[in-house]
Amino acid sequence: MFVRRKPWLMLTPALLFLLLPLYGLWSALWNSLTPDGEVTLRVYSALFSNTEFLFSFFYSMWIALISTILSLMIGWLMTRFFLFYLENTGGKLAVWLPMIFPHFVWAYLILLLFREGGVISGFLPGDPAFANDPQGIGIILTYLGKEIPFVILMLLPVYLERNRAYDDLVETLGGSFLSRIKDAEWPFIAPVLIETGLIIFAFTFSAYEVPALVGATFPEMISVFTYDWFYSGDWSERPLAFAAMVSSSAFIGIVAWILLFFMNKKRRNITEGL
Amino acid sequence: MTPFVRVDKASKRFGANEIFRNVSFRLEEGQIFSVLGPSGGGKTTLLRCLAGLETLSSGELFINDENLTRVKANVRQVSLVFQEPLLFPHMTIRENVGYGLKFLKLNKKEKNRRVSEFLQTVGLSDFGDRYPRELSGGQKQRVALARSLILTPKLLLLDEPFSSLDRELRVEMRRWVRLLLKEQNITAVFVTHDQDEAIQMGDVIGVFREGTFEQIGSPEEVYENPSTLAIARFFGDAWVVDENSYIPRRHLYLKRNEDHAKVQWKGDIAGIRFIQGLAFTEVLLTTSERIVIYTPEDYQEGEKVFVTADPSYIRDFHRTGERG
Q1: In angstroms, what separates the C-alpha of B73 from chain A's closest C-alpha?
Q2: CA–CA distance from B6 to each of A6, A27, B130, B192, B273 (Å)?
Q3: Extended beta strands in chain B, E state
Q4: Does the pLDDT of residue B319 top 60, yes or no?
């Protein structure tokens, strides 16, 4: 009996921990569905016909996508080509260091360096502003600074534990450097890379502090936009804020589900086929 | 006739660390060369150099009169089968077998034909659409072999390919692989630390110790006439008399009495063992060495005996013929 009950026992902390966000999500959903005490989709139809919201939604998607893809690419290239240096303690420390700064500290740093007249942008011709800019470059730079080390730390163990004999195998079978990356590396790192990308995307899509600090007044990312609705003097906008939160969560959930669905079979082949 | 594979005075150093030196051998086309030596003796590095994964520090490699010493691994017509099968886990068995064909200019139909042919050759025709995780260890190694053979390499290198298999399967695979290599007339270098395996697989055996070949010869030659004390000890089938001489173990027998006309070692029967239905007697010598001898007579445990041989069978290392 004890053995049968054990998995549940071990999952209890995780389940308890999940209760909070699940309750939050449920409460947001309930509030958005019952603006006047009765269940209606009125708020959602209002939300999705609101052009400002839609613009903010796609703007967030764009910023999150760019941040995610650049972080993954740069993080992967750095892990791949500097593995030798990253393996030792000094290298690991160098990657860990940016990890310990909170996002808002990094955002302040970007602000100091890249705002109009900032330490770096002041030296550039034309004194361009890369913080609080409508293109979202400040947001993207902040996220890159924080997420590239994250990508490296996620990939490092995979690269260290990867069977390097596959490189030799591809070479003896006639493969080039590129085929080595494609067939001896990529299949093994892809699951971790995609999972990491998912985490980064979910975070950058909906996090508040960074766009609030280094974002522009227009366009706003979805988190800032929703926050404004939530705390505006007009209480009638609260259900809209809730609906926007639920929609963002649902969107992230769907993206995650699709990616994991396609990854799982491949991952099973890889983990059990070695 | 010039040999098909020729390795001349090859050596490899990593910095000050010498891995092997003065390695030379010649192989005829279709010959299987067993390289036998203890683990960590530089055998794998030798194979890696032959495959082109490492460069030789000095020396040369010729295959079919073509100098391949500086040719890169991915264009060298040499294939390497590793200790582990190293199948691509995300590819089907067909894709795995046909992997190397991707890099050759062949049309799809011809590729498919070859993959089917080699799947059949290794007896895995029904497994083409499966993934490696659905195969057993022996099947995986067969796929790995097919993946190398499909490229019709001029030289096939095998680096202890059966070491990850269990004992019974290993014996079966040796027989099967040797037959396959002979059928396909493949010239191969087979590395192992197991003397049975070396003898079973090789047309020629090279005993590789401390970074060089101590002896190269047919299995019978190396077995019967080890050229050094170390080889005799390594094979364990020559009874070492002293550092200069030995007796092939099959000339040893047991006697209850002392006999001054023979060479004898005194000892006690420590036990009887049956191997493949034959009785072998284990004798604990007064020198505290142990020896196992085939004997048709009945002995009791604890009985005093003499391990006996005719002095005419004593042979010297570095010498072939028998004394007297």
Answers
A1: 5
A2: 64, 79, 40, 20, 45
A3: 5-14, 17-27, 32-36, 58-63, 66-67, 78-81, 155-159, 188-192, 204-209, 212-217, 238-242, 245-248, 253-255, 263-275, 278-285, 290-294, 304-309, 315-316
A4: no
Q: Which residue of chain B comes nearest to A263, CA vs CA?
A: B90
Looking at the domain B240-316, which fold is it?
A: OB fold (Dihydrolipoamide Acetyltransferase, E2P) (2.40.50)
Instruction: Answer whether 0.90 is exceeded by the pTM.
Output: no
B191 pLDDT above the threshold of 50: yes
Q: Is B295's pLDDT higher than 90?
A: no
ipTM reported for the complex, 2 dp: 0.82
* Among A264, A14, A11, A192, CA closest to B90: A264
Q: Which residues of chain A have pLDDT under 70?
A: 1-5, 273-274
Domain boundaries, chain B: 5-224, 240-316
Q: How far is CA B179 from CA A110, B30, B54, B185, B202, in A?
A: 69, 12, 30, 10, 11
Q: pLDDT confidence of B39, banded at 50, 70, 90?
A: confident
Whether domain B5-224 has CATH 3.90.1150.10: the reply is no
Interface of B with A (CB under 8 A): 48, 51-53, 73-76, 78-80, 82, 84, 86-90, 99-100, 102-104, 131-133, 147-148, 151
Would you say residue A5 lies in a domain? Answer: no
* pLDDT tens, position by position, B130-155: 999 999 999 999 999 999 999 999 99
B37-65: average pLDDT: 94
Q: Is residue A47 part of a domain?
A: yes
Residues of A in contact with B86 (CB under 8 A): 163, 165-166, 169
**String of DSSP letters for B38-55:** -TTSSHHHHHHHHHTSS-
Q: Tell me the β-bridge partners of B269.
A: B283
Instruction: Give A-chain residues touching B89 at CB under 8 angstroms.
Output: 187, 269-274
Give residue for tokens 């083409």: B128
Per residue in A156-206, pLDDT tens?
999 999 999 999 999 999 999 999 999 999 999 999 999 999 999 999 999
